[in-house]
Amino acid sequence: MNLIDTHAHLYLPEFHADLEDVVSRAKKAGVYKILLPNIDTASIESLKQTVLFDPSFFIPMIGLHPTSVKEDWEHRLNIVYHELKTNNYIAIGEIGIDLYWDQTFKAQQIKAFEKQLQWSIEKQLPVAIHSRNANEEVIQSIKKVGVDSLRGVFHSFGGSRKELKNILELPSFFIGINGIITFKNSGLSDVLRCCDIERIVLETDAPYLAPVPYRGKRNEPAYLTEIAKELAAIFGMTEEEVAEITSRNAEKVFNISNWK
Prior knowledge:
The protein is of the alpha/beta class.
């Protein structure tokens, strides 16, 4: 299989001790590219060092995660923007709105998200969107900034049929499917039967959300095969067909073939 992991955080401390082994297992499983979304100003250097470990395998994104939006969000955003202007990144991410745990900085999250959407238009780059308990707000911001000029992925989709419908109405957006699809109580399998596989990309979100049978353990890109296996059962395809289609989708939305 030829797989692309469109969203993994292999620059985090969880992988510092055995990154070489993690990469080896991923390649053995058929993964040929891993996209690395940034989280905060503090993670930028580690992200860049991880890319240097294997520049033909790792591809970086740059952005400010919504849970990193605090009182000093404008200062942090300026640092991220400087990084965007001075180095090469394939996408703006991981950005979005997260209202699950705390809504203290809801207004600031929306402002930071919309600013980064504007960067996406300015740089003609896709976005990797984190949306948690904020689907309406995220879509409203996309439409406000310019839906016809934006493209990207709703990372870690695990929503309802209504939420899926609302996303699929955005013409240039895909959904990222990860280990949640293997969780028995997620209900995601039924929701995805309403989705065209041409709008799906694969991801792990490693080290988080490890799929069954690895649930509860550290996630890693090699486990992407479990997600492909689950999607193959849903869509009545072979795992190889799922890998081919979803990788083609990833190539399209992130313009990977032109990455240098």
